[in-house]
Amino acid sequence: MASPLQKFRPSKDLAKRSAEKYLEEALYIRLFKDGGSEKSVRLQLNKFIKSHKRVFKWEVGDTLRKLRDRKLYYPALKLSEIMAKRGMNKTVSDQAIHLDLVAKARGIDAAENYFVSLPESSKNHLSYSSLLNCYCKELLTEKAEALFEKIKELNLPVTPVPYNSLMTLYSKIGRPDKVCTIIQEMKAANVTFDPYTYIVWMRALAALNDISGVERVIDEMKRDGVKGDWTTYSNLASIYVNANMFEKAAKALKDLEKINTRRDLIGFQFLITLYGQIGDLTEVYRVWRSLRLAFPRTANISYLNMIQTLTKLKDLPGAEKCFKEWESGSPTYDIRIPNALIGAYTKGGLLEKAMALKERALRRGARPNAKTWEFFLNYYLKNGDFKLAGDCVAKAIGKGDRGKWIPSPEIIKSFMSHFEQEKDVDGAESFLEIVKKTVDSLESEVFESLIRTYSAAGRTSSSMSRRLKMENVEVSEACKKLLNKISIE
């Protein structure tokens, strides 16, 4: 007679059918079936929500991880919230991940409110570490340090995670010396280092120009029995490159290739970039051939990386050949890839080639983006053609794909100096009208140049003083005198 366990154990055929069904209808496959853009993912997510189809909890977790890896935080948060409403219980680890998503999608205030709403049983080292990491990501130093002290006061289980977060914050705000202080604190508290601890420590020492110290960290890591991974040694190679220690960098890259046993795409691209930075064109091509063999259906991002590397090495014929290879086999015309060549052409003064490539991209269905127009803008500014440069500014502002495109202070200064020299009040005002569509506030130097332009042209203004007050701009004493001359009641 079959035991109760045997009676209710699913048959091998049923398990096989369930696995096959998952492979065909996995949630992340549904969400990414129309591409990886946030718009398409949101659309597919809404369809899934309306369908009320059931999914496994582990499947939701796997999908959330993939969404987070792609920085699709809003869809990830929505999925997490919907599954909670459907009764899917969250572990403390799930809550820590949800807190991170809330911070990224809705801001720190919302994350703090979510943390406060958690039951006391959920406020452990995972949720505290998650909130601390959110503070560190937003560079909220005072809040991060206060929370870090509270974590220690509560005697929560000691892990390297909160220390790593705080050290990363110090690195970002330019305080590598404080990273070294935290390292000593970890040693005094007998906190076990993880691979990332060694990485952030290495970066801090590199920022302090202590390359021998970086090498001592690697030795210490080996003595501690911690096996460095790809990230560890790629950081070491990058540190050598940035220190112009190209012989050591080349050796580190060779060692790095031995670690890339899984033949990761990111690994190949990193090698191409760093070999390019040390100027080794032969190795760049060798790694590119290996990448193409490992990934016959080569991704757009790989072509982009290769073309950018070749143009930096002044190998324009090689970059053009690589571009033609991509163009002949790509079903979608990714504007970033022609942009890489357009940038090289305009920088090299090859305007006709740049224009021809832009037109070819248009014929293939791609649209110039802000970066495209920025390349042409820089060319025209360099050649003193402010009329065409102004057209490029207007087009770039109108093509801000991910957030608005903002002209740099240097670009604005170049235009204002030109208008001042030409005594062109109308040109200056028209330019500033375009710029104000994307720049929230203009620097005082911009208005001072505008005032000097009015004065040089012998023009008056009934609103200049009012504009300065509205913009909360204070000009120099010399400009105040000119302002009195050009202002009329």
Automatic annotation (TrEMBL):
Identification of the protein by name: PROP1-like PPR domain-containing protein
Family statement: Belongs to the PPR family. P subfamily.
Gene Ontology MF term list: mRNA binding
Ranges where the PROP1-like PPR domain occurs: 146-293
Pfam families: PPR, PPR_long
This protein's UniProt keywords: Repeat
Keyword Calcium: no
Keyword Hydrolase attached: no
Any one GO CC term of the record: mitochondrion
InterPro entries given in the database record: PPR_rpt (IPR002885), PROP1-like_PPR_dom (IPR033443), TPR-like_helical_dom_sf (IPR011990)
Repeat region (PPR), residues: 124-158, 159-193, 194-228, 334-368
